[in-house]
Amino acid sequence: MPIVLYGYETWSVTLKEERRLRVSENRVLRRIFGPKRDEVTEEWKKVYNEEHNDLHSSRNNIWVIKSRIMRLAGHVARVRKRRGAYRVLIWKPVVKRPLGRPRRRFEDNNKMDLEEVKWVGMDWIHLAQDRDRWRALVHAVMNRWVP
């Protein structure tokens, strides 16, 4: 999984990518645990995703990604305003965009994650300046996605 998740802190995770990550994780779990033999009927049976999740005690990769993205966003929001990472974070493009729904950005994903945890209406960049409150928020996000 470290190979699959290389550089995931900077991803702008869409629903399609979340689904792909879940599918790949389930595929790996199926290869690890293999089919299961029923002790009563002595027949091989298919193991469903819920049963794999019960056998596998580690957290879901999507939950890990979202909590770590929030943690990185807090670090970037606290850097000096002249640094490149901060300037990329607050940059707004000036070119005309094509028609259609705009692509989801890093900042848009952070706002959506905050809305899921009921931290609505706050500017997350200003909220990240207070490390203790931001750490509490990251823990709330992680607890939201814990199974």
Give me the secondary-structure topology.
Elements: H1 15-33, E1 36-37, E2 44-45, H2 49-55, H3 61-78, H4 84-90, H5 106-116, H6 124-127, H7 131-145
Antiparallel strand pairs: 1-2
Task: Walk me through the structure.
This protein has 2 domains: 14-55, no CATH class; 61-91 and 103-145, no CATH class. The chain has helices at 15-33, 49-55, 61-78, 84-90, 106-116, 124-127, 131-145; strands at 36-37, 44-45. By secondary structure, it is mainly alpha-helical. Helix 3 packs antiparallel against helix 7. It is built from 7 helices and 2 strands, in the order H-E-E-H-H-H-H-H-H. A two-stranded antiparallel ribbon has the order 1-2.
Global geometry: elongated
Number of helices: 7
Global mean pLDDT = 78
The largest sheet, given as strand count, sense and whether it forms a barrel, is: 2 strands, antiparallel
Distance between the termini: 19 Å
Q: Determine the fraction of residues in helical runs and give it as a percent range.
A: 55-70%
> What's the β-strand tally?
2
Order of helices and strands: HEEHHHHHH
Q: Indicate how many domains the architecture comprises.
A: 2
Work out the radius of gyration.
Answer: 20 Å
As a percent range, the share of strand residues is under 5%
Strand order in the sheet with the most strands: 1-2
Query: Helix/strand-derived class?
Result: mainly alpha
Unreliable spans: none
